[in-house]
Design a protein that fits this description.
The complex is a heterodimer of chains A (about 525) and B (about 325). With about 525 residues, chain A is an alpha+beta fold. Chain A has 2 domains: about 5-45 and about 55-210 and about 510-530, Dipeptide-binding Protein, Domain 1 (Dipeptide-binding Protein, domain 1, Alpha-Beta Complex), CATH 3.90.76; about 295-500, Dipeptide-binding Protein, domain 3 (Roll), CATH 3.10.105.10. Chain A has helices at about 40-50, 80-90, 140-150, 185-190, 205-210, 255-265, 275-285, 310-320, 325-330, 355, 360-370, 390-400, 415-425, 440-450, 460-470, 475-490, and strands at about 1-5, 60-65, 95, 105, 115, 120-125, 160-170, 170-175, 220-225, 230-235, 245-250, 270, 285-295, 295-300, 335, 350, 375-385, 405-410, 430-435, 495-510, 510, 530. In chain A, the strands form 5 sheets. In chain A, strands 2, 9, 10, 11, 12, 13, 14, 15, 17, 18, 19 and 20 form a 12-stranded mixed β-sheet that branches. Chain A has a 4-stranded antiparallel β-sheet with strand order 5-6-8-7, covered by helices on one side. In chain A, strands 1-16 form a two-stranded antiparallel sheet. Chain B has about 325 residues and is mainly α. Chain B has helices at about 1-30, 35-40, 45-55, 65-75, 90-125, 130-145, 145-160, 170-205, 210-215, 220-260, 265-275, 280-305. Chains A and B meet through α6 and α13 of A and α2, α3, α5, α7 and α11 of B.
Chain lengths: ~525, ~325
């Protein structure tokens, strides 16, 4: 087993997805106990006394991102990180993930009280919390928002363990689950669980989400589709006020143009600068680059398609891959080797030993035990327009040729690539898996999407283990089970982890305090502008 | 009356062509190997979710029923609902199309402003160094892809000299003119090379004609000769070229708008392609086809205005 120490604050995450996490959460939710965390308590105490910190710094910034803001509904924003970022800025949930990758109360006054049978979670709300329009936020809003989240097309599956929600008084919410759910807090800290006004303020959902309001550090001031979206500091925010006075998001699809706009000074921050220009920006006075490993690129092998239906053959593939070379060649060093299909950050640094191994002799030995001892061929389908997949495929082809496995490269359009995945007609395929938070969420997703089209023969076993994990409230014990699942998947060779690419932002040096959070979101509420 | 009959007949062709385009688009949509549900949810979607979305969109109905609904919608101006924006396609086009049209018109104006003097000078100085230069330099423009030309213009005029905005659309007439200048120039650099050579050739032919000799014999010289006698006759063949270039220009904005981060249909279609927003792509294609057809019709009618010898049949 190999545990890897990660740089403090490093946390790989999702391009678009969930924002849960936390490993210890400052204490487990036990029988009739009220877990606490230091940060949360102090935040709650501050709010309880009704004193929001005065705005610090100030300033207005413009941010260029590849996509326009399209869907700001908590569920719909799942598809694009650019949208879920906005959701997280204008609305808070009962809980949130802090910069240390721990859960802390947001709108909740503290950690929940869990019933003796661990099926009911009682959560008190902070007093005095209002939406950005000044309307008080009550338990009815929480109930409405969570019921709405449960019916979400994209992320409703996360909330299915919730059977009912009670709102006995304006500041108390009781959540009932059908079975024990050790990851419920992480679900409540995810962006689909942010709190919106009950009944969308009497509007139709699609009308409300044109200019939604919430109880987050910012609120929408102006939205011009295709042109820009402007957020301003929420003066009624219950927590520490954002330092920036306003943020304007503009869509700039072309990555080179984003860099040019930064260099021309017409924007202050850009998302996803081209990797080729990162070194240049780092060296250029007046600019800074912010990075964090994000997600895991993996090779999915279809376990029902020969020769990949042979576990020894798949293990030979995994052992013959030189992941360090991939990091250098494909990422230009901007990332790290991955040994498990869930980011090591969310596995508390755990890395399955087998998944890390690069051993040609062992690979040949596995191949000799397979039903294709002299090698065989299989194809890998990939999106030929992707920035990483084509080169990765070529390296894999070269690596596997050394043990007698021939790889046919099937580079195709994004559309046909997705069709091959959806119809499971592929033998090998790539996928950038990026789901932040407790590994249980990723494993749940793995099961719900049938191993993300990988057709893993391990699904029944993983499903059983996942169900077992949901009733283990002790973090250490649950993570031990997660480690076991990671070992099993790595050893089965159906989801071969390759590398973890960096998420990149570039900024003018006048931007202070910018960092990527474990949720893969930039910490806009903490950013300030140098005078 | 003849002109009116001609316009009526051409409008009928426009409608028939658009119907053909719409039929082709509908068939292409259904030839895709993935259903809308699969495209919208990607690989993270569960089979149940995919089925639910397909049902909500009516994709599980017989193809004939879907086609009738599609055509019924089109006849009522309903281009469908964008998967990406979750709003009617017509609403999205209402926002984006004006930006693209402004860019196209700006580029056309720049084409005229650049082409006419250059072609005239080249023709009047035939085979002189200035003629060679005018004919040769624009060829560089043809050789440069628009995304590269646009990037170079941004580096020089927006980043280095800060004369124009580095992409985006500034509000107001002045802001629009400033921010659309470099994108329009990008289009013009390509188009003017072709137009200049064509117009120069026309001018040379006109200069050899009897009525120019007559005008010269009467003492008409210089600018009066060019503006009053040469250009009105020389510009007609170039108009037909302009109608072809207009189609290219509309196609070109797809790249130019992306490079310059302009919120027009070019940028929109790039986003729509990324997520396979079929209704939006179809809507943009239909509207673009309509624009090109109408533009061609207008130019054909303009021939008769500029040259009364042209008879429309």
């Amino acid at each position: 087993m190999q545990h890897r120490k990660w740089v403090t604050g490093a946390a790989a995450v999702s391009v678009a997805l969930i924002t849960t996490a936390c490993t210890s959460s400052g204490g487990k939710a036990g029988n009739q106990t009220t877990p606490t965390t230091g940060g949360a308590s102090s935040a709650a105490a501050q709010s309880a006394s009704g004193s929001s910190a005065a705005p610090q710094g100030g300033g207005d910034i413009t941010v260029a991102r590849p996509l326009d803001v399209i869907d700001i509904s908590p569920d719909g924003s799942f598809l694009r990180s650019s949208d879920s970022q906005i959701v997280n800025l204008i609305a808070d949930g009962l809980y949130r993930i802090n910069k240390d990758d721990k859960i802390e109360p947001a709108i909740a006054a503290g950690m929940p009280t869990v019933s003796a049978d661990q099926l009911s979670w009682t959560i008190k709300l902070r007093p005095g919390v209002t939406f950005s329009d000044g309307t008080p936020l009550t338990s009815a809003d929480v109930k409405f928002s969570l019921d709405n989240a449960k019916s979400g097309k994209q992320q409703g599956k996360l909330f299915q363990s919730i059977t009912s929600i009670d709102a006995p008084d304006a500041t108390t919410v009781v959540i009932h689950t059908a079975a024990k759910n050790a990851t419920l807090l992480w679900t409540l800290a995810s962006f689909p669980a942010v709190i919106m006004p009950k009944d969308f303020e009497g509007k139709a959902a699609k009308d409300f989400y044109q200019m939604p309001i919430g109880a987050g550090p910012f609120m929408i001031s102006e939205r011009k589709p295709g042109t820009d979206l402007k957020l301003v500091r929420n003066p009624k925010y219950y927590g520490t006020a954002a330092k920036l006075a306003s943020i304007t998001f503009v869509p700039v699809a072309d990555p080179n143009t984003r860099v040019l706009k930064l260099r021309a000074g017409s924007v202050d921050l850009i998302e996803d600068p081209p990797t080729q220009q990162v070194a240049q920006l780092k060296d250029k006075p007046g600019f800074q680059v912010i990075s964090l490993p994000v997600g895991v690129m993996r090779l999915g092998l279809n376990t029902v398609k020969p020769p990949l239906d042979d576990v020894h053959f798949r293990r030979a593939v995994s052992l013959a891959l030189d992941r360090d070379s991939m990091v250098k060649a494909v990422l230009g060093g901007g990332g790290s080797k991955a040994c498990a299909w869930i980011s090591a950050t969310f596995l508390q640094g755990y890395q399955p030993d087998f998944g890390c191994k690069f051993d040609l002799d062992a690979a040949k030995s596995e191949l000799a035990q397979s039903s294709h001892p002299k090698g065989a061929s299989f194809s890998i389908v990939y999106d030929s327009a992707d920035s990483q997949m084509p080169l990765t495929a070529q390296i894999i082809q070269s690596d596997l040729a050394k043990i007698g496995i021939k790889v046919e490269l099937n580079g195709t359009t994004n559309q046909l690539y997705k069709a091959a995945l959806a119809n499971k007609t592929f033998q090998g395929r790539f996928s950038l898996f990026a789901l932040a938070g407790d590994p249980g969420l990723s494993i749940n997703n793995y099961i719900a999407t049938k191993a993300e089209s990988t057709s893993s023969n391990l699904l029944p076993q993983i499903t059983q283990q996942y169900q077992q994990s949901t009733s283990i409230f002790d973090d250490a014990a649950r993570f031990k089970l997660y480690d076991q699942i990671m070992d099993e998947i790595a050893g089965n060779g159906d989801a071969v982890a390759l590398y973890s690419p960096d998420k990149l932002w570039a900024a003018s040096s006048k931007i202070k305090g910018a960092a990527i959070l474990p949720t893969n979101k930039l910490n806009f509420a903490d950013i300030s502008v140098a005078k | 009356m003849a002109r009116l009959r001609y316009v009526g007949k051409r409008l009928l062709y426009v409608v028939l062509t658009l119907w053909g385009v719409s039929l082709l688009l509908f068939l292409l949509m259904h030839a895709l190997p993935s259903s809308p549900g699969q495209l919208m949810l990607g690989e993270g979607g569960t089979p149940d979710q995919v089925v639910a979305i397909n049902h909500a969109l009516g994709y599980d109905r017989p193809i004939v029923a879907q086609y009738l609904s599609y055509m019924g919608g089109l006849l009522h101006g309903d281009l469908g609902t964008s998967y990406l924006f979750q709003r009617p396609v017509s609403d999205e086009l209402r926002i984006a199309l004006p930006v693209t049209l402004k860019l196209a018109v700006y580029a056309l104006v720049l084409d005229v402003v650049v082409t006419i003097p250059l072609a005239t000078i080249a023709a009047m100085r035939k085979n002189k160094p200035v003629d060679h230069a005018i004919r040769a330099i624009p060829l560089v423009g043809i050789g440069m892809p628009p995304f590269w030309t646009g990037t170079i213009l941004l580096v020089i005029f927006a980043v280095a000299f800060k004369l124009f905005p580095a992409g985006g659309l500034e509000p107001g007439v002045g802001g629009n003119l400033r921010s659309l200048f470099l994108p329009a120039l990008t289009q013009t650099i390509v188009a003017s090379a072709i137009l200049t050579r064509s117009l120069r050739q026309s001018i040379l032919e006109v200069l050899q004609s009897d009525y120019i000799l007559t005008a010269r014999a009467k003492g008409v010289r210089g600018l009066r000769l060019v503006v009053g006698h040469v250009l009105p006759n020389a510009v007609v063949p170039t108009l037909s070229l302009l109608s072809v270039l207009f189609a290219g220009l509309i196609g070109g904005v797809l790249i130019t708008e992306s490079v310059f981060a302009l919120p027009g249909i070019g940028s929109m279609v790039v986003q729509a392609f990324q997520v396979y927003d079929i209704p939006l792509v179809s809507g943009i294609t239909l509207v673009t086809a309509a624009l090109i057809l109408v533009m061609n019709l207008l130019l054909d009618v303009m021939y008769t205005v500029l040259d009364p010898r042209v008879v429309l049949k």
